[in-house]
Amino acid sequence: MKPPAACAGDVLDTAAPCSVVNYLRWDLSAQQIGELTVELIEQTKRVYDQVGSQKFEDVSYESTLKALADVEVSYTVQRNILDFPQHVSPSKDIRMASTEADKKLSEFDVEMSMRQDVYQRIVWLQEKVQKDSLRPEALRYLERLIKLGRRNGLHLPEDTQQKIKSIKKKLSLLCIDFNKNLNEDTTFLPLTREELDELAQKLKPLGEQERAVILELKKAECEKRGLDFDGRINAWDMRYYMNQVEETRYSVDQNLLKEYFPMQVVTKGLLSIYQELLGLTFDLEESATVWHEDVKLYSVRDSASGKVIGKFYLDLYPREGKYGHAACFGLQPGCLRHDGTRQIAIAAMVANFTKPTPDAPSLLQHDEVETYFHEFGHVMHQLCSQVGAGASGTGAVLAVGASGGSRLPGRRPAPWVTTGPCRRLAHWIEMCLSGAGGLRSGSAVPAAAVSSRPHTVVPLCVSVSSSSPIRLLVIGLGPP
């Protein structure tokens, strides 16, 4: 039972014809999202039904493992078209329709992950296939499917499986609703003093030291201004005096430092560094179809061969209803398609940096620049991975993306695979630091600011966590 040539051997067939097609589309109406969700579920279910209904003597690599991998490639792209808009679309109706699509598709994912008939045929395949006939990726995929099947309890009695399925569906819906409501969340977490005792003991000494430093600064300023000193650190005091600590103890002026990081300068430096570091060329697609006017699409070519290996979207500014943090979303996995051609990888970096206005440029804090480099590292990991299975980037054959991507039961990233490369790539920010020019002066960032900035992170950790009344109570510094 030898697999097709495109999937056999130990070395990836990088010479496979490459399709530079962007299968993604962002012009769907709310109604179309609902209709296509139903179609996608029906199409994908038919493949699972075919795999699960095979006679055991007919089970083969092509009819089982390859069939599941191929449908996952198609499913991943179509699913992202339907559920990614909930995070980025400027239309509330489309965001709501996308969220509902995500719920239906997530429920479907659970159903497919609990298909005992499919699981039994995968186990049968593992027992009869010659291991050395499979590519390492295919073998890993096979082993992973079996492991996930056991984790889902598919080897357990039927009543236990039904309980697991019910729990998984409930968890899936809760996660989707939580993400949808996160930016509007106003709830609080009730904790007893007994529950907080151990935490307070660990953090209070450090917190007291930092509290004393901040109170000393506040007292000196009150005396200088002729104001009454109340001996308290109010919520509105925190950010101001955190900046004072950085300026007086570490010679870091955040407002001054920001001037060295205009968005245009940082973006140009970031793209230049990654192109040189990875041997790539980025080309802005001027007339690209995107989901919002602020979004830009770049094609990525291997500088040596000139071949297009992927594309990435940059969606960097906040707007109503948009995903509230910074993340990389894998949208189209780079892999071999069912016909043997290579599909390019496409990813999107979504962030919420300050948007420029006619009167003021977008200036980034140092930690925002770090975030930019970090998340863009995920993007590069997505695009530069060259795999055969239906996955790419941060999880190799185990995941399609750092965020989003395939939810069918074959892909989950190992933590070190997900975060390791982007953390290392984020350190290249120091090159941007050393070469940046001031917004007004045009000079480079002062060496003292570069060397002192990293040391400001740890001493302020408790100060940050004490920036609200509940956090003050958590570390034992608040009123009784």
TrEMBL record:
A Pfam cross-reference name: Peptidase_M3
One GO cellular component, as annotated: mitochondrial intermembrane space
TM region(s), chain numbering: none
Enzyme superclass (EC): hydrolase
GO BP field: peptide metabolic process; proteolysis
Residue ranges annotated for the Peptidase M3A/M3B catalytic domain, each copy included: 196-393
Protein's UniProt keywords contain Acetylation: yes
UniProt key word Iron: no
Sorted UniProt keywords: Acetylation, Cytoplasm, Hydrolase, Metal-binding, Metalloprotease, Phosphoprotein, Protease, Zinc
GO terms of molecular function: metal ion binding; metalloendopeptidase activity
Its biological purpose: Involved in the metabolism of neuropeptides under 20 amino acid residues long. Involved in cytoplasmic peptide degradation. Able to degrade the amyloid-beta precursor protein and generate amyloidogenic fragments. Also acts as a regulator of cannabinoid signaling pathway by mediating degradation of hemopressin, an antagonist peptide of the cannabinoid receptor CNR1.
Subunit structure: Monomer.
Official protein name in the record: Thimet oligopeptidase
Protein's organism: Leptonychotes weddellii (Weddell seal)
